[in-house]
Specification:
The chain is mostly helical and 167 residues long. The chain has a single domain, classed as Four Helix Bundle (Hemerythrin (Met), subunit A) (Up-down Bundle). The protein is 63% helix and 6% strand. It contains 5 helices and 2 strands. It has a two-stranded antiparallel sheet. Helix 2 runs antiparallel to helix 3, helix 2 packs antiparallel against helix 5 and helix 4 packs antiparallel against helix 5. The longest helix has 36 residues. The chain is elongated and about 80 Å long. The mean pLDDT is 90.
């Protein structure tokens, strides 16, 4: 009983401050760049899958090579679509608060979640492109909430595409 009163007094005199972090360590470091790279990877894997020509004479060696590449590209696409969802959930849950959230952040996040799932379920270049666009909208909202101006810049990657980055 005495210990409880002592802790209550300490809490009143020295109230705990809110801590915000992406990894449950209060470092305060957030950046949508990982989500953008993951979304661009989804785009690139769709491109590689589309360019993958099945062997004409399904010889075992050629068939195995084709199947191996198809499975690897598909697995990578799915892992990165899930990584997009993971990164966006963390920033949405830990960084955005009522005082810094744009009105449409819920709509953007919902779109990202659904589009990332669609990108996982199919070989769908349109879904990959839409995912990258939505993640860029999310990045723009993130940087705006931090008071940082943004611009679109080339990804400079084989997949093409652009990223929203700090200006």
């Amino acid at each position: 009983m005495l210990a409880r009163r002592a802790f209550a007094l300490i809490n009143r005199v020295f109230p705990a401050a809110d801590a915000y972090a992406h990894c449950d360590v209060p470092c305060g470091i957030y950046d949508p760049h990982y989500a953008q790279i993951a979304a661009l990877t989804v785009v690139r894997m769709n491109q590689l899958i589309a360019d993958l020509a099945p062997p004409s004479a399904m010889e075992k060696g050629e068939r195995d090579k084709y199947m191996h590449a198809l499975v690897r590209f598909t697995q990578t696409k799915e892992e990165h679509a899930e990584l997009v969802k993971h990164e966006v959930r963390i920033i949405r849950g830990d960084f955005f608060k009522p005082d810094n959230s744009p009105d449409n952040i819920g709509e953007i996040v919902d779109g990202i979640m659904k589009t990332a799932s669609k990108a996982r379920q199919n070989i769908d270049a349109e879904a990959g492109d839409k995912l990258l666009d939505l993640v860029n909208q999310f990045a723009e909202a993130f940087w705006k909430a931090k008071g940082v101006a943004t611009k679109k810049a080339s990804s400079n990657q084989a997949a093409g595409g652009e990223f929203v980055v700090p200006a």
